[in-house]
Amino acid sequence: MPPEKTKKPRRASTASLNASALVKNPGTLRKKTVAAGPSRQTRKVRIPAPAEALDRLQSLIVESLDADKAEDIVTIDLVGRTSFADRMVIATGIADRQIAAMAMHLDEKLREAGVRRVHIEGGMGSDWVLIDAGDIIVHLFKPAARALYGLEKMWAAELDIAEPSHIETS
Fold first, then answer.
1. How big is the CA angle at 109 (ends 108 and 111), to the nearest 5 degrees?
2. What is this structure's pTM?
3. Is 100 strand, coil or helix?
4. Which of 15, 57, 64, 131 sits CB 3.0–4.6 Å from 138 for a disulfide?
5. What are the residues whose beta carbons fall under 8 Å from the beta carbon of 101, sequence distance 6 or more?
6. CATH, domain 51-156, list 3.40.470.10, 3.40.640.10, 3.30.460.10, 3.30.420.40
7. Helices and strands counted in the chain (H then E)
């Protein structure tokens, strides 16, 4: 009697391997989608805040930074240039403790003024502290870090003006 032939297991197709991988690794497809960014249909258009409210908030921020002896306070209007904020305030602090104190005092004053979500990135011993006050983003730098990153140059109005291209046609 001849030996019984055993069937080799069929190799799974690529589609079924991908489907089984999604089951084993939930969230993989979601992570890829998030990394790809929002589609044009789902992208929200940010409506700028009223100018009067921005002016009040900006003056509160600048006064707080000035009271804490911040140096070189610069404000940049971002309306129509970006979707994450309407204005940006950049200031310099000499020491870590001064920058941390400026951030803490600004956080307190913003909360007292009714800004609901104040998010602070960076902290003690950091060369750069970012304070997200919703419509206004505040950057607090040490002098060397401010020169290194050059946010004023990056967001300068001159960069928005496209230079004419000099293409020769023959």
1. 65
2. 0.64
3. helix
4. 131
5. 68
6. 3.30.460.10
7. 6, 5
**Residue 86's pLDDT band (cuts 50, 70, 90):** confident
Residue 55 vs residues 29, 83, 169: alpha-carbon distances, Å: 43, 18, 49
**For tokens 């290194």, what's the residue?**
148
More confident residue, 47 or 160: 47
First vs last C-alpha separation in the chain: 86
What type of residue sits at position 106?
A: L
For the chain, the maximum distance between any two Cα atoms, rounded to a whole number of angstroms, is 99
Inter-CA distances, 100 with 44, 88, 128, 153, Å: 34, 19, 10, 25
DSSP secondary structure letters along 14-67: HHHHHHHHHHHSTTHHHHHHHHH---TTTPPPPPPPPHHHHHHHHHHHHHHHHH
Q: State the residue for tokens 């991908």.
A: 18
Residue ranges of the domains in the chain?
Answer: 51-156
Q: How far apart are CA 161 and CA 139, in angstroms?
A: 25
Cα–Cα nearest to 139, from 102, 89, 65 = 89
